[in-house]
Amino acid sequence: MFDLKTLIRPNILKLEPYRCARDDFKEGILLDANENTIGPAVADLSPEEDELLLNRYPDPHQVELKQQIVDFRNSEALSELKNFETDKLTPDNLCLGVGSDESIDLLLRCVCVPGKDKVLLCPPTYGMYSICATVNEVEIVKVPLTTPDFQVDNTKVLEAVTADPNIKVLYITSPGNPTGKLVAIETILDLVEKCKANWNGVIVVDEAYIDFAALDQNGKSKSLSVLVNQYPNLVVLQTLSKSFGLAGIRLGVTYANTTLIRYLNAMRYPYNISSLTANVAIRASNKEGLSTMKEYCSRIIEQRASVLEKLQAFKGVGKNLGGLDANFILVEFLDKEGKPSNDVAKKVYQILAVDNGVVVRFRGSELNCTGGLRISIGTPEENKTLLEKLDKVLQQVNGFN
Ligand SMILES: Cc1ncc(COP(=O)(O)O)c(C=O)c1O
């Protein structure tokens, strides 16, 4: 049933990737791209910045960076990967974007015809999917995550996609935002298998927070990125904004089968990844960078446990609504009767920010998140301040603690 050639929009199938003279010739006197040959008009570039030749367009292919990324993810291949040698990732499985926000949008535009096609979302979920869908005039169909465990409801999703062939993309966030909960690998793969047989659409698993999730019993990451050659209807998104601590460079990664990736690369702006971004990303994804990333993740995970434990000792703070698979928690705020309350959560949010300079995120209006504040895990000092201030704010709001 799944058939990429009929899924991709006809205008995209016809698209010829932008080509430049530098695809053929990289060296010599380069007078092919209307660059400023004198140099960058910045007097005080550092020697490192100077070396990046910022007067020149960046490399549109970024093979070195892609190779490092796939080497890393291949090194963590899941036992679900049946044939490592034939199915392991190569740079041709990757399309790089300006953050995964660009990847979300690109994929949607690749397969959804405006005014006709639809996307399926599983709320509560990340807000950019619906923004991109709305901007592109793509209708949104919703199948909520199950409660209270925030998993994908495979039966209902299958019902929805088989009932409506105009649904072309399903976005799953795992670990979820704002849920902080990993969707079980078995659940996603079961859905991927069943969808492949019954639906002409792609399942996009947004793994922005995957490096904060617990490793499996073999010490491997639970990322599904290594499975995209095995499952042509599976697409995985990742970002350097979270575990790598590089939200400022804007780098997102799409993993998919090589055919789909070819179309995504043909669609994107050829120079979307700046030389500055690529340079930092290459340093972040080499051996040293990866070990720093892992160390930071462990520190954040340690802090996550400690913040949650302390928070839960506060009267007026209810349960952790979500999971412990990301760099934030979603905790419930209660009224005097002990019921989750958006009024209380909003007041706490306001007073924390306005009078105490600590900004968290109110998520109580999201489906099944009543009374919820999403709190990113800070540094130990930041967390200490958060806890002190919150203690005070809860007394003010509810007379608690
Ligand atoms: C689930 C999810 N996907 C994607 C993003 C966006 O990431 P990026 O910074 O790479 O655009 C976020 C950011 O918060 C997110 O929570």
TrEMBL record:
The keyword Mitochondrion does not apply. One of its GO terms (biological process) is L-histidine biosynthetic process. Its cofactor is pyridoxal 5'-phosphate. Its EC number is 2.6.1.9. It catalyses: L-histidinol phosphate + 2-oxoglutarate = 3-(imidazol-4-yl)-2-oxopropyl phosphate + L-glutamate. GO terms for molecular function: histidinol-phosphate transaminase activity; pyridoxal phosphate binding. It comes from the Eukaryota. It is an enzyme of class 2 (transferase). Pfam families: Aminotran_1_2 (PF00155). Residues 28-390 form the Aminotransferase class I/classII large domain. InterPro entries: Aminotrans_II_pyridoxalP_BS, Aminotransferase_I/II_large, HisP_aminotrans, PyrdxlP-dep_Trfase, PyrdxlP-dep_Trfase_major, PyrdxlP-dep_Trfase_small. HAMAP family: HisC_aminotrans_2 (MF_01023). Belongs to the class-II pyridoxal-phosphate-dependent aminotransferase family. This is histidinol-phosphate transaminase. It comes from Scheffersomyces spartinae.
